[in-house]
Each structure stands twice: as structure tokens, then as C-alpha cells.
Amino acid sequence: MAKKVGDDGIALDFQLGDEAVEIINVKRSFLFDLLPCPLLVFSPTTQGSYPVLLFFHGFMLQPNSYKSLLLHISSHQYIIVAPQFSPMASQSREVKNARKIVEWLSTNNLDSVLPEKVFPDLQKVAVSGHSSGGKTAFALALGYGGSSTSNATQLEPGLKISALLGIDPVAGSSTSCLCSPNILQFIPYSFDQSIPVAVIGGGLSNQRAFGMCPPGAPNGVNHAEFFNESKPPCYYFLAKDYGHLDMLDDGTASLSRWMMKSGKGSTDTMRRTVGGLFVAFLKAYLEGQADDLINIVESPNIRAPITLDPVISIEE
Question: Which parts of the chain are coiled coil (predicted)?
């Protein structure tokens, strides 16, 4: 039987996986006229079919800022599609563009850019994002960006979203200043979603840097509210000692990071933690292998490399 934890007791999901990963830049062209923006694709290289994760970056960031995190997830045998949205686009436009990318995926365009004999399993698709990109992921899963919000998770023929993850999702600068589309209702369990949800928050993300810079994830519109409005099954992990941008690669988004409250712990360990939580959640809900997720939820102080407090699991 394969090991599930290392010698230190930490779940192996928090370590880099064994799969070699190729990073592919996909540009808009006449061959891909449905694409609204460039993509950064992370793909396993071993022959086979793999689940697909859509990942949306945060405000004024880019997929390259998350390269270490996305490599970690992909090394556990997931294909990741990370769009590069225009910094000038409104969030409503981002959600519409996210839906166009789903349309592009649904017509098997991804096959042509992947390594030889590597294929996407479009029956196992999850959406995710960080900060405003986390909200974009929620909006897409809830059916925004199209003509109707009914049957939200069935976006295109043959393409169904099966899981939803948000890293420190943010809906605006305050409860009175929300970005469109406004998906928060401030009512528990109000999201019209039937798929499992995982929300990862930063314990310092609601605090001001230097006592004056606006927080990255203000109270009332941050990770806590997204979790409160999610229907079961839903999971909440708070990285108690880390901030809003502490999962980015070192040396990226320098100005934004200077303006945000950061933790004093290792950012590499934070990236490993977020990556491991993604892997455990995706294994549970895309592949039916729930043991790792259950063990992390039941014993986070043993299985995770950083302090996760609280950890909340609400089952159906």
C-alpha cells in the first residue's frame, strides 16, 4: 500500500508529486479564435488522461506569480489551465471571459496544446482562483457570465464543474462597495451550488499593512463570508499566520506584497500547504479518494505543515 504521510507525519499531498510537468504558453490565434486571452497551462507529461483545474489569478496579478503553487498541484497529476486576464478588464468581463474559456475547453481545443498522448478528462473539472479570481471562480460555478444562472454547474454540453476552490476570495472593498457581479447575499447557505466547496483563508488578510494600507481581504467580503454562504459539502481552512499574498512566488508582485500584511513564516511552506489542500480536496471529489482530506480535517496539527485554525467541515 502506498504511503500517505511522510516520516514527519505530514500528508504527502503537501510535498511535490512525482509527475514531471510541462508548462505551456497558449496565445490567442486564428486557430483559437474563441480564446479571450492567453493561457498558461501546466500539464503532466506521462501518457494518460487527467482531471482539469481552472485557476483564475487575483487583481493586477498574473499566472506566473503562482508558478510554484500550480506546479505543486500539477505534479500530483492534474492539468491546470490558468488564464491571463487583462488588468484593464472589469470583473464582470473576467467572468464572461472565464465562461468563454470553458466554451473553448468544451470543444476539445485543449488536446492540441498538451504533450503527446496526454488528454484532459472533461468529466472531472474543477474551478478555482485567488482573491478576486476566487470570486470569479464562484461566479462561474454559480452560472454568472451567461444568459442564465439556472443549472449553474452544467456550463456547456459535456462539461460540468464538479468542485470549487477559493484561496482568500474577495468580493469587494467593503459590504457597501461590492464588485459586479454581486454574488454575496449575506445569508448563510445562500449560494445556489450543489458541488463541494473548499475555502482557504489567510488569517492576516483582513489586517492593514503599516496600519494604513487597505487589507487584501476585508471583513464581511472575504473568505469567511464565502464559506458561510456555501452549501454542504463545504470545507474551511484558515492559514492563521499568513497573509493575502503569501502563496505567491517570491520576487513577484513586489509592490502589491509590500502593501499587504504578510506573515513571518516561510512562504514556501504556505505554498506547499495551499497546494496540498488543493490536492487532497481534488482527490476526494474528482477521484473518490477521500482518506487524505479526512485525515487533514481530523488532525490538521499533525498532517499539515502550518497552523490551520480553524478547520471546519460541513457534510451533507
Answer: none
Mapped to the 3 state alphabet, what secondary structure does 199-251 carry?
Answer: EEEECCCCCEHHHCCCCCCCCCCCHHHHHHCCCCCEEEEEECCCCCCCCCCCC
CA distances from 24 to 18, 35, 83, 269 (A): 19, 15, 12, 26
Work out the number of other CB atoms within 10 angstroms of the CB of residue 193: 20
Cα–Cα distance list, 76 to 125, 154, 230 (Å): 15, 26, 27
- The H-or-E segment that residue 51 falls in is strand 48-56
How far is residue 134's CA from residue 106's CA, in Å, rounded to a whole number?
Answer: 22
0.90 surpassed by pTM: yes
Give the integer Cα–Cα distance in Å for 256 and 261.
10
Q: How far apart are CA 185 and CA 44, in angstroms?
A: 39
Q: What is the pLDDT of residues 31-50, one digit of tens each?
A: 677 899 999 999 999 999 99
Confidence of residue 150 (pLDDT cuts 50, 70, 90): very low
How far does CA 58 lie from the centroid of its chain? 10
For the chain, the first-to-last Cα distance in angstroms comes to 30
Cell numbers that stand for 36 in this block: 479571450
Residue corresponding to grid cell 487583481: 59
Rg of the chain over all Cα atoms, to the nearest angstrom: 18
Strands 39-44 and 79-83: antiparallel
Mean pLDDT (the chain, rounded): 92
**11: its cell numbers:** 500528508
Please list, in sequence order, all residues whose beta carbon lies within 8 angstroms of the beta carbon of residue 169, skipping any fewer than 6 positions away.
129, 130, 131, 132, 134, 135, 137, 138, 199, 217, 222, 223, 226
- For the chain, what's the residue count? 316
Residue 71: Cβ within 10 Å count: 18
Q: Which residues are catalytic?
A: 131, 168, 244
